[in-house]
Specification:
three-stranded antiparallel sheet; globular
Length: 336
Amino acid sequence: MDSITHIVLGACIGELIAGKKLGKRAMLLGALAQSLPDIDFVASSWLNTSSDLLAHRGFTHSILFAILISPVLALLSERWHRKHDIGFRTWLFFWGIQIFIHLFIDSFNAYGIGLLEPFSHHRFSFNTIFVADPLFTIWLIIASVALLVINKTSNRRRWWAKFGLVLSSAYFSYCVLNKLLIDNTVRAILKERQISFNRYFTTPTPLNNLLWFVVAENDSGYNIGYRSVFDKNNSIAFRYVNRNYSLIKPLRGNVDLQHLIRFSQGYYTAEMWHDTLVFNDLRFGDMAGWKYPDAKFVFHFYLQPSQENKMVVQRGRFAGWNKDVILSLLRRIKGN
């Protein structure tokens, strides 16, 4: 999830676990603990872009990292805060639960996490909630603001922490139900229309959990389209995209390309933008494809000639968005 979500989520959890003994400092430590796995961002200062893509949400988002770092931080916390009479086991729970919850919710985004690093490079990504979903985060923000304002001795503090966590958890459960509904519907439509596929995925479109991007892969390419939870007709307007592997075949020994194929989990296409060879990762969707039928993909990496690829995950995410695009998104969410 985005950094703001991790911060306010950690603050609410911190308040519940240690608020009575640490006061508002529990929120600060909770926000820090919940954000800790994202320390891997520092790798971007010395890694090139394709390597950094694999490093982010890699080892620091693994079970091994959580197991190793939690007792170390618990031991340090116990020594630094002995006057608060918080035992090692409580500190171990404090740090451990925060880190594991971070890993848990990040695994439900499209980017995925290296949960089994360094023993396996498989990325776990359940494609259930968009990386920044206002309806997940807003309750945690409201609760955190209230906790900052309310006196540290007030009995209402636990109520507000529970308010944020319960409502965000309820929305998360709703997202899981939407995922199950959409997946069942997509499989039924593919079968009914006799569209052959080797595998498929669905992932929510930006900032919501109602409109979903659908990709069904076959041997040469992909059928892609959109499905709203409010769609009444039993169909999806697919467009077909070739993988175009022949374009990148001459570069099969290229390190960047090898990293990109691994990062994309095999969901990729290649294409020429004028004289530039571009690698697309389909997992991040296309640029407002609900409005523009031939939209380019959000994640596009310039292979040849070499160009700037910084912010490759983010740069296309809201490219070209304006009032018309937002209104078209709302109309498409309402369903066909």
